[in-house]
Amino acid sequence: MEDPNGNLADSERKPLSYVISDCVQRWFQDTYKQARAGDPAMMVLLAQMFHSGYGVPKNEQKAGVPRKRAASNGKLPDQGVLHH
């Protein structure tokens, strides 16, 4: 609950690391949904997130799936960073 000045009560404050982790996980989930819906830019971003372990445990095998899907649609931009 906020006081009249807009400050949160101490019991409602979350550590910054928790807030950032939550944002990263939600970003991954949103990216995943958009990639599954066929957005080629989100497929590339999802591949990069799996590749680097951003918002999800690092998984090179899973990184290849959205990358291949985007490439098969002819939508894969030049992403040298994805080809380590």
Automatic annotation (TrEMBL):
It comes from the Eukaryota. InterPro entries: TPR-like_helical_dom_sf (IPR011990). Residues 56-84 are annotated as: Disordered. This is Uncharacterized protein. It comes from Eleusine coracana subsp. coracana.
